[in-house]
Amino acid sequence: MSNPNFHQFPQSKSIDSVRFLSPISSSIPSPSRITSLKSPTPKSIVFSTLSGTLHFAFLDPVDGSFDSGPTVETSLHRGSVSSIDVVEGGGECVSVGMDGRVNLVGVGEGGRVEWKRVADSNGLVGYSSVRWGSNVEFATGGLGFGLQWWDQRRPGGAVSQLKGNWARGNMPSMVHSIDIHPSRKHICVAGGSGGTIFAWDLRWQQQPIILSGAGVSGTSQSLSESDVWEVQYDNHTLSSSVTSAPSTKILPVMMCSEDGILAVLEQDAEPIELLGEPCAINTFDIDPQNPSEVICALEWESIGILTRPRMVAY
Amino acid sequence: MPGLASDPDNSIVPFDPNPPTPIIYPIQINLKPPISRIHINWSRGNLLHVACLRPAGDSGEGLAGGKVVEVKLGGADDGEIGEAERRRIAYGSVPAFALLQSRRNSLMAMARMSAASFRNEWWEHVLEYSNQISDLLGRPKLPSGSVIEDPRMVLQLVEKPTSLKAAWQLLKIFYVDRLSSAWLPEHLVDWLADYDGLLSKTDTTIHSKLAGLQKKLVDLQVVEDDPEYWEGISLALAVGWLDIAVKLLRLHGSYQLDQIDSRETENGLVEAVAVLVSTMPRMRPDLPTGKLGQSYKTKSDFIKAWEKWRGHIAKLDFSTFWVQCGHHQTREGLKNLLQIMLGNIKNITNATYHWMELCISHLLYMRPFTMSLEGMHSLAQKCMQLKPNANSSGLTEVLLGILGDNTEVVLAECSRTFGPWLVTHATELLSTENDEADILLHEERYNLGGISIDELHRLVYAQVLSSHPLTWQIAPTYLASCPKQGLGLLENLLYRQPVQHFQMILKNLEICRLYELDDISSRVMKIAGMYNWKHGKKGFGVYWLQQAQDEVRLNKIAQRLFECIGKSVSDDSFKQWEGLIELLGSEVGSAGGLEFLHKYRDFKRSLQQVQDGRANDVARQTVESLIQLMKSPSTPQRFWLPLLHDSVKLLNWKDRPLLSVSETNLLMNKLQELSLAKLRPDFCDTELPPKAIGSVRLALATNLARAILEEP
């Protein structure tokens, strides 16, 4: 299947993460493969690696390129950093790992990194993804489709959690990615193993809403049978429809999967498949300035840019 | 290959029994001598690890005891296609190959299909496949879309094509494009036009000559005085690059406005030749835009036009106008062109460099009708005698193999020059139309361990893919198409993938799922479980073992875990176990010995509620949890006393005895068992105060007495 609006650009290396930035061409060295990449402001980049390090990079206003900034090399995690997230607009960075550690990292005065450990389960629990909900709250996800909600104002562990043992049989059940919409902070949407995409409304705690996948509900459709690597709210639809929708409604979500699918899901609607590639789509990003543009990284050492027709208001 | 070296004559693939000159790889060690030992071992792919060690005890201050150097072997990479580009081709060919295999399987499954329609349909699939691969190897670059055409730009110097693509196209022409076998010579003319520059790296070719002329043209004022100009035209004409020949002719000085009056006859002759060149009849269905000539689809039409065209040439050759042409070079140059078009062997031989060019020239001007493969083969042999080339390229060897109808040679040359990728993908083309090749490729061979040549090449290619960390995951597609040994090697491949990163494990499991290798996926999960358990990721380790339903290991792990938990029976740190317990789920059986944790958590929870002063029924529920825990074989013995000690309040419940007689008896028996166990050497004591056992005993006795009184 070839899509005339999809352009693929072969690279000579594996692409682990992609993010839209202002038009700048820059290259920053990394000690190992990147597990998570964020750009909280147009002037900064934060990324974590498989070797367990965390790096900041800032835009040099003089020559317009990104320069390596402070780095946390050791003792942040035992093993690799699974996922990071930075407060939008540039603030604290939260990092999680399969070692069960949750850390907050920030760049203080004089460009010095300061970090503190929020929790350490000593490996009894592992976290595979994290996402800020507000300046003080964040959600983590991990094994068994479990989700946890943390509030820095109430230290000592997660303040509420979604029981994860609703997954089927002996198929893997891991959360790979979480997203929280700024207008609906009480809903976490998560994607993981077995093509599963579900939402967790903090107000109805123990019942996940399955959007796709082989969950408990027999009626939910399944777009994919493999791992969903990333989910992001799709802001392609105009903002008026977002504000007018009831607060219980799950807004459209874009996902990419191991079996090469890039699609948009909406509650109670047929999913829209944007791409069906012969290899995995590892990650994607929607251009915040122009949401009809989507960039994605494909397993076979290439990136692709998809241009969607502009949405008409409805 | 087994048995190959001993018997070169009967080998499937021809080979040179004399070993080639060994290749020397100089390595730099920078280690102070003496070196006492050298270890060499394989690393990933074609990397060798060479470890040089100094004698033990000789390591002075700041001196390294040894050094390991990485040596990259082979490097057959001649620079034409880089590593990244090779991987791009490898990735891109997977979907086409997989589609063709699945189509073959579905065609095979259709029982009621005549052999003819089977062939037809299969051929169409192979054609599509060969086009997909050919696109992948690079599409011809379109000439730059400049509006004003530069008349002096006769040869578009676009990006150099690759030999790999040239080889693929050659195979496609001879093995797949069977509908066009009548137009085979013209196909070869087109092929040479695209790839002439690749025929030799060192020897002169028409392409290299014309490229030289193109550079010179920019500065040349009076072109017709330069012998290279006339040679260029004859070269282009000889191999049928008519557009180039005509473009060059029209650069002739006599076309210039200030000269046209004084050189009228000369210009008339040049134009007449140009018209003859551009109207040459061609035996082909059509001509792409920009190419000259007149195409004829049927042989009879073509022969008629051909005779007529030759008549025009002969007529011009004997024209009286030549006498009036004062420019010597022009007269001679044009006459030479006419002789080439008339198929004069001497002129043709002079107007070509490589034997293949001569061969094409023959096909164009001497034998323009379809000829058999055999005929072409003997023609090629003749041309090689006339134009022996010192350095033969892999491409011409492949061509000779094809013309000689020798599939083995074609395969061997493809393998030698272009490597396993081409051989693996080309076998599909070779056997499409040729039954002999089909048998040769698919016959099971004793000397290959019962596999076919086709399978052998796929296995070799899969090995190459598996040895690279970025391409191993596409090897399964090829292994799955190997009926004999593919599955075994696939299992082996999956089994030995590293499990450090969970993304890798998930990839592995995904492949297992696609090929329905449940057994391997369960083993991979067990390996992953143990790895993570050992590396401190206890929850993750337990998770994988639970997925793999590995009761044995879970039970062992449970014992270790309980050692940590035993100390925290009554404190708050039990909270951090919550996550793990959640993960274990409530299904009994899937958690091995860890199901205890779940019941224990429930018991602790309701006990908490009892202490908060809840009602009788909550207390009764707690007792039921206690009895279940004490009955369960998965509850470790060392938890018995702490559990009973925590329940003293329940045993002394004010309102009524909460335990029945039989329940109290059960607990007393357990206590008794515990006292006996104390004598055994492997008993592990709890950290409870010494009087704990006494208080439990007393509470049990009290409860028993009250229960006997209560019960009717």
Account of the protein in words:
The complex is a heterodimer of chains A (314) and B (712). Chain A has one helix at residues 239-244, and strands spanning 6-10, 34-41, 44-49, 54-59, 66-72, 83-86, 93-96, 101-107, 113-120, 127-132, 137-142, 147-151, 160-162, 175-181, 184-192, 197-201, 209-212, 228-233, 253-257, 261-265, 272-276, 281-286, 293-298, 302-307. In chain A, 2% of the residues lie in helices and 44% in strands. In chain A, the strands form six sheets. Chain A has a four-stranded antiparallel sheet with strand order 1-24-23-22, with no helix packed on it. In chain A, strands 2-3-4-5 form a four-stranded antiparallel sheet, with no helix packed on it. Chain A has a single domain (33-279), classed as YVTN repeat-like/Quinoprotein amine dehydrogenase (Methylamine Dehydrogenase, Chain H), CATH 2.130.10.10. In chain B, strand 1 and strand 2 form a beta hairpin. The N and C termini of chain B lie far apart (88 Å). Chain B is mostly helical and 712 residues long. Among the domains of chain B are: 20-74; 159-405, no CATH class; 550-710, no CATH class. The A-B interface holds A 10-14, 50, 78-80, 98-100, 121-126, 128, 143-144, 146, 157, 161, 163-165, 170-172, 174, 193, 225-227, 258, 278-279, 299-302 and B 82-84, 87-88, 91-92, 94-95, 98, 470, 473-474, 500-502, 506-507, 509-510, 513, 532, 535-540, 543, 547-549, 575-577, 579-580, 582-583, 585-587, 590.
